[in-house]
Each structure stands twice: as structure tokens, then as C-alpha cells.
Amino acid sequence: MNTARSSRRGNRPSVSDHAYHIYCVNFYDNGLSALRDEFIRRIKCGLRRSLFVIDVENEVQLAIQQQDLRISKAYSKRTGANELMSTDPVSITMQRIRESVAEYENISRNIDQELHFNLYEYWQKNSPAELKNISTDPNKERASRTKNTLDTMRTNATASRKTTKSKAEKGSSEMPKMEKIECVSVTAKDHHKVGKGKPLSKRMYINDNPLTTKIMILVIGHFDNDFYKSLLANHQPVRAIIHFLPEECAYDLLVPRPRRERYLQETIENIQKDIHSLRKRTATKRVGIFQQQLPQMSACLATKFTDDIFNQLSWFVYDLETLREQYVSYYLAPYQEINVKMSPDANMLDSFHMAESLSIQGHYLKSQMPAARADVGTIYLYVESLMSIFGNPRELMTEMEVLLLANPTSSAQTRMLDKVKVYANAFKSIVKLSKNERLFVEQGNSLLSSILSYMDQSLMTNVYHGCLEYNVMRRYFTSGYITESLPYSPYNGELEPIFLPKYAQLYLTDDAVTQRIIELVNDYDDITVEEVFPSVKLYTFRRALNEVFEQQKQTVLPTRLCFRDFTLFEMEQFLNDLVTPQMFDEAMEQNENLAMAHSIATMHGLENEPMIIKCKGGQRLSIDPHVFVRPQSLKAQIKDKEKEEHTPAIAANLESTRSTKSLRQSKTSLQAKFNLTGSGGTNIPYIGLGPNHPMLKGYNLDDTQQKIKSKTSTYFFEEGRITLYEEKWNFRQMNKCLSLNVDGHHVHFKGSAKSVGTTDGNIRVESKNGISLRVLLSDKECAKAVVNYPNGLSTYCHDTHAEHVWSIQENKLDESRRVCTPYGCVIVYYNNSSTVLIMRYNGEVYHLFSYTEAEVEEEEEAATEFINACSTQSTYSSYQPLSNEIKKRKSRDVRSSQNVRSSGGADSLSRPSVQSNTSKESSAARKQRLAKSKQAAVLFASIDFELKYLKFIMGLYNLSYKHLKLITSMGSVVHVQTDGKIWCGKPFKNTEWHDYYANESYSMRNDGVKVIWTKEETRCYHRDGTIIRTGTIEGWDPGVLVDEIDAEISSSSSHRALVRRTTKEVGVPPNPLYINIAEADPFGPVGQTSASSRGSLQSIATEVPRKMSIREYLVEEEGEEVIICDMSFITYVPDSYFLQHQLYAGIHFTFTHLTDVDLKIETEVLMCDNLKIRLYKAPQIEELNPAEVKEVSTVGDAAEHKLPAFQASQSSEADSDEWMKRRNHASISGGGSTQRPPPPPFESAMVDIEGINLRITVSEKQAVVTTRLRKFGCDENALVVREDITLQVDFDKNLSTTFRNWVEILTKFINCFCPKWRTVYFLESSSTECKRKGFELVRSIPPLGKYNFCAGNYFIDVNELMSINNRMKNDFDFYDSDMVKFPRFPLYKTGPQPIEFPMVLNAKIFVELPTQLANSDRIHHFINPFDRIKFRKLRHRFNESVLFHLHPRLRQLVQQEISKRSWANHHQEQQRRNLSEQQRLTLYLAMLKHKVYPNYFQFRDQFYYHIRNIDFFEFMAIKCSEKANPEHYREHIDETEEPTAPAAVPTKKKNKKCLCPKYVKSLQ
User: Which portions of the chain have biased composition (kind: Polar residues) (predicted)?
Assistant: First the structure.
């Protein structure tokens, strides 16, 4: 027995920490107090054993009362010690939770004991003591222990007691005597219930809770988030937080109570705030949050409906547990996650390189497109490329297959009709003129224009491929998710008429209409769509000026949600789409007949069995399904195939549905879900959510709702707008951007990612043609400014140089990158080649090859010619070439040998021997080698400056070569190799001349280099189009006095070492501007300088340059008469380099001094779209205390007075200019050592950006934007005033604060509070063929382009569809004028320039609306004829416009004819006007003379109060007719009215007037 009881107790669930669930319930408003009290009272009755309630408010009040009682003195005296109870709600709740759990365990234990009662054990525990002492027979006791049933044990126990008692009384009697025991009775009552009332196991409990339900403890009260957090911190199993709100009753509708409504509204707001705060906690993910409305009722009603209250609220709690089970079974288990997380071990650099290597390659495009602009063409192609690379590419037709669609065969015409229609859309917006070979593209089709702008338009095949690619891309905007979602009011004929503008721009294709509507929707904030006539819609786009417009959006990424977010966001949809097993069984029963028929008709082997149909009356009919299908028909064959394919799957699904009840189906109504008569497996029954349900698929992100909230605040003004974009991902601020749009330029600021509440120093400016400029003044950035062109070119502005880099391989010059240096040279790198080209400002060209060539020496007649050909020195220089020494030495050797031979005896004339011959040959070879070495030494000496400059550049920019081809400024060509070989190439002819009138000098080499010297600058034009403009300033050169005799003496071998040593010690280059390196081997390894050379570099960098006097160059001689020769002269030295090219941005370096270790330069970058950047450094002095400032100023003034003038001028610092301040070089004396010197100013980088009506100054702490806007004011008649306005961005402030400050500044600046709107009307008409036309209405036609054509009431504006490369080209005004000067004597005269008319053009068409139809009531009369007009049918109109511009003579004749006709019409109109005025004047005089006037009413009604409306002929004729026939013009009196007889009045006799004879004659 003990073993059985212990086993039963083990099966009973033990109550542990997780054996109960806590539900926090909040009842709001007094209207729910009676319902709450009744619910609490019923729970305490205990009818539902698993429900417990804790009324926290009452418990806290009770604890406070007990605490007050224990604090009282009387109670303290009685008890002796004050044991105070805690009044903390959390502590009280925890105590009550423990008590509830203990109570449940106690009740469960008692019930268990009652249900499993053992009489024998009870008798042993409760029998009298005298019965326990009586011994029993051991055999019977042994037998009783072996009994198993309760009846046997009771019988044996009774018999043993009676036998023992009879033996004790009689002793000798053998037969037992049965007597009644009087002490206790065990058969009359249940002894284990004596005195205990009704047992717990016999009570009638309500057992409607779920089977898996644990103890449910309802904690009722008004709680905040701290209470929930405390329970979770104590590891309490909080399952749900429930908010019960009152419903709106009839009394609330009859009697308005604003205070209560305000209280409820505040309560709901507080609940939402608490929920938002709880969602930030990870511990609350398993806690469901629910809101429910309950009816308000009084205490009487609550008592009346107590059972309903108790049942409904209890079932509500039970439903929460059921919902959690369904959440686990039908949501978590089948959920499919898409892996989008990046592995922590992933290499970001590899990912970056992979993303960078992805090329934008279309399906039909043959060339790569750069991803450098945010236009529609680039975005669509980028998305399509990603989908093609990472997804399944679309199955498209090849180019040849598309060409075959143009002329399909008769057999394939019907089969390919759909494809023909699809690919016909590619060419609806483009027209080709066959005779003129011109293409016209509809400008309203922005996607097609964007794609064609990236193509090489010189080939028609590229345009054709672009059209095919456009046909693939057009599905991105034709999906209709924007246009079809716009609501519109249907036509009812009651709209008020709207007067429309007079002109309209036509959009003649569906794609153009859709794209234009999408652009207007994105650009305007107020949109209204009205149907003014059937199939005619009027779009009204409005924009409020000088006001802030806010728009919020919300995006949710699908993820698997935790239970908390699931109950908040997806519970309702989940319950609507859920199919429970009970619902499934009910539906299966209702569709039993259809299921049976379906199974019979589809299952294999049951085709011949009839299906039984149950009718409404209960009658069952058997019908053979084969009756309705002919056996040999096509339908029968199709059904047989479907049976073979789908019958096994359907049978298995039906069987598994009835057994496991776990099938699922998509979301439909209950009857549609189980429509088993459908096809195959599309309508398979299911349990839970259907397959491919959107709630069962998402990303593997965090299990909270991934909600992205975006808010856009826009402030519009006349010249542009300000936009603030804020984005939050869940509870984190992810992105905040502020943009300013002024005159086509977009300036973007963004929030800092490192610190919240600050602004990032990264500023981006975007021009109207797509040039993107980024500026970031950070020490970590290698480039302070980066310019991205839409054609794939990027320009990086570094501190020491600028670099152009191509992101695509295809470009006009086949270059990969180009480096512009402040040392007057350009370094060019080529694609697929290791050749490097260096072009210098003076025309020198260096070709650096990575391979060696065979030595090629050209035959020269004499060594002097060879040396002079390679010499780069001019005849006006003091350089003395070494060839003269060789000449003299050779001549001396010849003379000496002749003298020896002439003075010798016969031995000299004897025949030489063989040994002498070999010695002569060896000596000749030695002489030849010596001559070659001397020639090489001479060549190296002649290009020594070039090699030193090259070595300096190679060391700075990490260059190397194996073979060097040098073209000097004079045209000489020298080849040098690293193995020491050197030889000359064929020189280029160099021609120089001077124009004394223009004061310019010119130089032209045969290799294409041209140089122009002017007073202000030197312009060097290289062969590839590179232009290097060198700005010059006047400088002073001290000069060198050289004596010819000393030069001859120094040329001897005994003086060479001395001269070399003296030149090293004394001789300093007169003007070392940028080449300051020690003399070394020009072919040594670049970048490895010796210690002495490094020391010399440092000494040069740190040494203060001083002016050299003439005494250092002249030899002082003793004597009275000494002639001092001043050899100094004025020269020009460079102060700036401007490196330009048509394809690249212009780089302008301006420097004060320039060395290899110290650069004082200012960089300017000039681009198209009138964009300009200036990078410079401005000095900033650190702030000091006032005392320190005063002390420093005193010391500085004193030192400045002590400083001599010549010492003040000797400084290595830059001269003061508009960007720099002069530093005080004060020498501190020994006595003033205690005084602090002034702090040296430090230089900080700054950038100036200039554009069209825009200037931005960027520093490390702020950015200042300056622009010029119009000041409106409220007076429209006032003069138009434009002033500059400054907007400042502090990087340590939030962008929201900056936006508010900008709005306040603009509002004060504009100073106009009248509402201003900008309205755009757009008409869309749909024809019967579903073809749409668009009309954008404008008040006036914008300025037309160069190739416009006007005729009738339409205007064709044709502009060149320029490619991106042509848009990015730079136009130089001086280039054409300079090229005219070359060559000096042209061989032929330039003919007239041919007429340039572009091959591909953009076309816009404007029409003029008649005044009578320019309103919303009649505009459909004007639109209807355009349904028959197509863009491709306007070929003849475009042909007229082309001919008008292609033939100037025809254009001149047309203009003359138009002028002639217009003047003729003008003269005719003038004559008609003069005749009319003459007639009017004559008739007016006749009217005055004869006194024939109109009466007042006639003058008012017929002539509208003005005499110009009177037609005198008609008026005089009517007047004359009235006098002739007065009865005809008399008004007829209505017969129904009886005329009253007028009183007899004597009439005065009047004379009858006749017409004037002059008037009659004038009529004749």
C-alpha cells in the first residue's frame, strides 16, 4: 500500500517554481470596479482550483493597517516586540504567491488522500489503545498480511476481534461467540470524514481549464513597469500583462463627460508608453501584452451576471494559454527563416572587393556602365545586375531572335504575337528618320533617355541595344504600385469648373505618362485626383511655400517574433487565418459529400464506383461521374493524366489529415479552404496556417518586430527646399540627413554614427548633371575631397597632389589613373600596360617602360653632332659642352703624333710587324670604348637636370623603370636603361617664333607639343590634350661671372677635382624651387638615400634662405680702380600650375614656396556645372587668458622694436596674403626669460565649395552655406530684392536643431506670412484601346532650345541627347584661339565649318489650348483628337524641323517668306484698321449731326457701355428702318393681358425728319 501511494504521488505534478503562471491584470476606470470585485469574489470561492487571485491594493491597505496596529503602544506592550510587516507591493505579492502555491499543494494533498483512502491504515491509526494491545494469532496475522482485497481485510479483522474477546470471557469454550462491539463502530460511517464536513474530493469543481494548464495566479491592481520588472528580476513566471478598458456605453453618448474622456485618452497614451518601454527589455519577450474592452456595469448587474463574468474572464485567461500553445505549434515550429546574417568571422575587406568587382552589365548592353549616379537608369540596371548574379536570370530572347520578330513567318506569326507586342514597347518612344539618319527620343521617357545617355551614340547598334535593355527595365515602373494606389473621385458631373493654364506639354506614350506621374508624386506633397470626364483624370499637385510639411512612413521587415511582439502585432491576423483541429473536423463533415466524390473520382482503382450525393431532404443519390465525360474525348485524356500525377499525393494527404490533423492550406474563407473539387494539390486541406503563408517566412534577425520608421520634414521656398529625413530602426536612431536644394545643387549633411546628437563632418554636394562631391576634413582620410563623375571618373584631392581614377576600363584615352603634382608634371598610367608617362610643364616627356630594348644608335658623322643633338642647353646659356674639350684633345693628339712621325728616323717609316698590328687593333678598340664612354658621360651630363628631376618624382610617387625614353624641351630624344646604356634617338624638329605685336612667343615640336609664352603665364599643350598652364611672377637672379681664361684653366685635368670641390662647397643653385636633392647616381635605387643626402635635405628644409650679394660672386682685387660688374638680372619664376584636360577636372596648384619636405600650396579643382573646390590651410591662434594675452603682446612689441630690418626680412615662412597672417619673429632676451612667448598659430584645413548661387565654407567644426534668395514680403507690388543669406551647420549639434534654426532664419528673411502655393495640373486621358496620353499644363512655354521648330499652335523643342562623356567635357575659351596660331605658316586655309546637327535628339512638344476650352468642363473636347496621335506618327513633323536646321539657305528663305507674309498681313491689317476708323469717325459725326443715339438700356445691354462695340452701319440702318416702319419694331402685347387705355393726352405736332443727303450719298 505504501508503495502504491508513493507511486501515485509521484505521478501527480509537483509544484515548483515553474509550476504556476502569473498574470498581471489591470482594471481601468471606476466603471469596471463592480465587475472586478465580483470576479475576485468568485475566484476566492475556489470553484476553479487552478485559479488564484491577489488583490494587491487590498493587500497593501491591509498591510498598512496591521502595521499601524503593531506600531501602537498598547499592542507593543502586549507583544513586547514590534514585528513590522512590509508594505512594498512586490514583497506582498511574492508572499501571497507563495501562500497560493502552498494552498494549492495542501488542497491537492488532501484531495489525494481522500481519493486514495486505506481503511486498514486508518484503523491502525485511530483504533483504541486496548485493541492495539491484544495479541492476535500469528497464523491469522500472517494470512491477513497476504490478503490483497479490502473486503478480505475487513472480514479477517472483525473475526479476529470477536474470537479473541470470546476466548478471554469463557476461556474453555471451543466455539466462538459473536457479540457486538460497543466501543467503536467502523461500518456505520466513513470514519476519515467524521467531524470534517464535506470532503474536498466530493466538491463540484469546474474543470474547464486546458489539460496542460498549471496554477494561474491573477495579480490584480494598477501596476507600472517597475512592478513587472521586479517580478521578472525575481525570476517569477509572468505569462501575460492584461489591460481591461471600459467600453463606450449609451450613457456616454447621451451625457458627454469630457473629463472622463480626457482621462481615458491619457490612460491609453500611458499604456502605449509603457508598452514601448517594455519592448526595450529582453526579459519581457516571453510575456504577452493584451488589451481588452469590458462593458461597464453596476454592482447589481455584476451580481446578476456573476456566472457570466466569472466564466468569460476565466475563459479569457484560459484562451491565453491556448494561444501560447498555438503560437508554439503553428507559428514557431513551421517558421522558415532566410539567412541574412553575416558571419562574425567574415572578412569585410573581401566582401568590399567582391561588391566592388560587381559590374553593372545589362542583358543586351555590350559595355559596362558606371554606378556613380542616382538616376533611374543606373538604379534599375544595378538592381537587375544583382538579381542576375545572385538569383535566377530571366529567360530573354537573344538579339537575333528579336530581329526575327520584325518579319515573322506566317506560321510563326500567331505563335510569336505575344512576344512581338512585348518587344514593340521598346521602340514606341523613339523615331528614326531614314533620309537624315537622325533619332528623336521622347524626353518625357526619362528611363530611355538615361540609358541612351550612357551609350556610344556614334553607332546605331548601341542605341538599338539600349532600347532592348529599356524594354527589360520598364517593368520596374509599370507595375503600378504608385499610380494605381492613388485614390480618385469618379465623374459625377457636379464638379466646379477649374480654369486651366493656356499651354500644355504632351506625353504621347504610356511609359512617359507613368514616369511623369511618379516624378510629380515624389516631388509634391498635396495630391488630388478627379475624373473631370469619363476616362479623363485631372491630377492637381500642390506645394505650400514657406511652410513645413511632414510625412511619416513605416516599414516592417518580416521576422519570427517573440510572444510579446506576436501578441501586439500579428495575433489578430494569426487568429483570422488559423484553422484549428475542431474547425477542420467541422469543415470536413460539411464537405463530406464533396470529399467522397473527389476521392472516388480521383483515387486509383475507384473510377467505376458511383459517387453518392446527399440532398437537402436527406435523400442520397448515386451518380456515376463518367456519365459527364466521353471516354475518348480530350477531356478524358487530360483527366487521366491528372489522376496519374495527383491521385497518390491527394490520397496520402487525405489520410494524413484524418490521422494527424496537421495539414495546412493558404488563406481563404472556410468553405474555399476545403474546396476539394479543385485541381490537384492547390486546395489541400490543412490545420494551422496555410502553406506559403506570409507570416511563416522571414529573416533570421532578432525575434522582435523589425520596424523602420521614417519621417520626412520639408520646407519649400521659391528657389528650392530644405528636407530633414529621420530614420529609426526599432529603438535606435539609424539615419538622419539634412539636405538643401538651391538652383539645381543638392547639399547633404548626415548625423554622426559615432555619437548621437552630433553632425558628421562628411558633406556631399550633388550637381544637376550628377557630379557628386564629398568633403571630409579628417586626419584619418587620405583625401580631403573626392569628386565622383557619372561616367566612372573619380578625383581625389590629397594634401600633396590630386589623382584621377577610372572605375571602368573603357575610356577615350585608355588610362587607368592620372596623378597631377604640384611640381609641374602629370603622371599617367594606362590600362593593360606597365608604361608610365610623365608630362612636364616645359614640354619634357618621360616614357617609363618596364622592359628593355636593344640599343639603337643612329649613325652620326661626328661626335660633336651626336653630342649637340642630345644637348638640352640653349645657345644663350652659359653651359659649355664637353664636346669642345674632346675636339681640342683630339686635335692635340693628332698634332703630337704628326710631330713624332716627322722628327723620327727610318724606324718610323719601316713596315709594321704582326705584333704591332695587334697592338694597334687593341689600342683602336680601347680608343673606341673610351670614346663611347666619353660620349655616354657627355650624354649623362647633358640630361643631368632631367634625370635628377625624374629621380625626385620617382621617389615621391614610387615609380621605377627599366627603359627610359626622354624627350627634352628642345626635341632631343635620349634612351636610357638601368644597365647604364644610353643612346640618342631621332630628334623632333622644334620651331620657335615670336609675335612682337601680341608680345607672345611660340614653340611647336613635331611630336605634337606646343608652347605659348606670355607675360602672365606659359601654356604647354601636350599631344594627348593635356594643358599645363604655368603662372609666373618676376624674380631676381644674382647671375654668375665666368672668365673664359679661368674656364679654360679649370677644364684641365689638374683643376677638375678642385673645381668639383669648390662647386660643392660654394656653388648653390640660384633658385632651388622644388628640386633640393643631393647629387647621386641617377640610376641608383629610388627611395634609398644616404645619410649625407638626408642631412643635406634636412639642412635645406630648415635653413633660412638668404639673399646672396654680388660680393660672393666677384673676386676682390687690391687696387684703386676696381670694376664691379653687376651680373644680376630679372627673371620669371613659377608660382602656380594649372593642369587641365577636356576629360578631367582642372587642378590648380598655387604655392608660396615648394620643396620636397615642406609644401605651402593651395589646391583648386574646377569642374563642369560651375563647381569649384578650394583646399587651403588657415592659421588659427589658440585662445589664451587675458593676462597671458597682455604679457605676450608686450613681449612681442618689445622684441619687434629690437629686431633689425634685415633680420625681419630673413624668414622661411610664407609671405602674408589674404589667407595667412604674418608671424612675429621676436628674439627673447636673457632678462625676459620668465615671460612666456606668444603661442604659435596652428594651421587647420579648410575647404571652399562654389557653385551656381551657392558657396560653402567647411572647417573642422562647422560649415557655413551662403546663397542669394529673393525677399518677397507681403506686398506683391514691391520691387524684387535679392540678398545673401547665411545658414550655419555646427557639427556638435543635432540636425533637428539645425533644421529648426534654418526654418526660423528663412522665415525671418522672406518676411511673408501670406499663404503661397505652387500648383501643377496634369491631365491623363485613356482611349478605348487603353492607350494613355498625358498633358502637363503650364502657364507659359519655357525658353526653347537651339533646334526648336514652331508652326501653328504647336512647338517642337529639340535638344541634343548628350552622352555622359560629352556632358562631363570641359570647354576652354582660349583653346580654339590658341590652336589657330599653330603652325606659323599654315599650308592650307580652313574651310567653312560644316553644320553640326546631333544624331540623337530629345524632343518635347508643346501645344496651345484654346481659351474657350481651357477649363475642366470642356477640356475633354481638346483632348479627344489626341487619342489618334502617336509619337511615332510625328515623323513628318520632326523631318520638317530637321530640314529647317540642316539647310541654312532653306531656313533663310523660310524666314524671309515668313517675314514677307507677316509684313503683308500687318499692312493689310493696318489698312483695314485705318478704313474702319475713318468710317467710324464719319458715321459718328453723322450720328451727332442728325442726333440719332442709342438709348441707355440698348447701350448697356447690346454695346456693354462702350462705343467701340457699336457697328455704325447696322445701327444707322436699324434706326432708319424704325422710322420707316415703326409698327414692325413695336413690341407685341400679350393677348392674355388686357391693355389699359391710356389717358388722352394732347400730342404735340412734330416735323418729320428726313435723312441727310450727305449721309445718303456716303452710303452710295
Answer: 146-161, 910-922
